[in-house]
Amino acid sequence: MRIDFTPVVLPYFRKIALRVDSWKDNSHQIQNSLLVKHLKKAALTDVGQKFAFNDILASSDIYGAFKETLPTLHYEDIRRDVLKMIKGQQDLLWPGRCKDFAQSSGTSGGKSKYLPITPDSLSGNHYRGGEDAVAHYLNNYPKSKMFSGKGFILGGSFANTLGITDSDVHVGDLSATLINRITPLAELVRVPDRKTALLPDWNKKLPALVHKASQEYVTNISGVPSWFLTVLRKIIEYKKAKSLADVWPGLEVFFHGGISFEPYREEYLELTKGLDMHFVETYNASEGFFAVQNDPDDKSMLLIIDRDVFYEFIPIDDPNAEPIPIWEIKKGETYEMIITSSNGLWRYRLGDTVRIESINPVKIRIAGRTGAFINAFGEELMEDNAERGVAEACKKHGAHILNYTAAPVYAKGNSKGRHQWLIEWETPPDDIDAFTLTLDTELRKLNSDYDAKRNGNIFLAPPEIINARKGVFNEWLKLAGNHKLGGQRKVPRLSNNREMMEHLLEMNLK
Prior knowledge:
The chain is of the alpha/beta class. The chain is built from 18 helices and 20 strands. The radius of gyration is 23 Å and the shape is globular. Residues about 105-110 and about 480-490 have low confidence and may be disordered.
């Protein structure tokens, strides 16, 4: 007989979910308290002394003094300090020694970033964010039997590309650190075991994952949608099953993040036929756990304002504008997000843009990356537009996409400019021309600037789709130094130049 512990833990998680009620009209106080907490904690660090945190704390307007004293920073501004931290220096960006670092990219440049994961950020943000995801899910579905089985967490591994000799220092995917540092008690409710989860060689890891996970009673899965598809299909094949319902009859929820779920939604619905399946989006980046979908009927996510992250925002229509705090943002506007957190990132520009869907509490949708857009002809096509347009076209034509990217083709001679899409299909549409027309139509519905430029084919010609051979995007990721199955590395969806596209097209011919 299977024991279900969900009723036992439900009151604890519901209490966590219901704390959101106290956020209404209280974001100013909560966020300001976090800022004060971080300034006090780091006052004696190198950054704290450089920018006189104690003087900021003595000001009658702490946020005002903070904003006037500290500049906003990109990764290159802190790279040198982070590399020193990796080598063992203490008290630079955050008190004490940091031994865990998330390797991240997400850009077309392929140059890795190494982001500190301090013990404070693990306990105060990353693990708490995961707890929030479970809490809101159980609050929405109190009859859940999630804790009658195990959670299958798909993660990456560590890499030693920096020549690290200190065995206490780990650099790799955020997910690897989360698995490695998790409390031993959690091992009782997750799969696979730590040793298997952290295997670096995917030729050994994938079959081990498939074997171990397929033997367990799994009720929930967590990971990046694109990578998880590969593993889930292998499990169905291994068990000679028709769908996941035959393998895990108790599977009920997928906590997903890292990339947009929309292009993959139909594929997951097909894989989970016969299950009462739910999908919960999370905004869990290497820099922090920021938001979670707390309403199944609303695709926006609740911004988590009390888990060690202080937020600021820059309007994307005026990148030279002064950043503003959470209590000054406006509904319907799109902003670049800036964070100050217990991982030692101070006024750090993530490069992510979010649209504010509601205030009190603040709910957001990820609009894309600040560098991930196409505006070669005044069309201002954003990543969010692309993801939603592709998802709708796939739905209408029964197609499934593994990966894609798009870039402008500039006008030359008598030819007009256009957008060129390179798409790797899992299931191609029967009629590629009809798919292209639907994609174009959906983008015009979603973006008025794109629609205006496409009007009458005067300024912008219809999009062009090129079929990518299987595996070309993974090959590109490997060459760019960004590839690690199960990790957070991802293909930029939109580029405003042709550098990446030309490289991919050349590879596509091989």
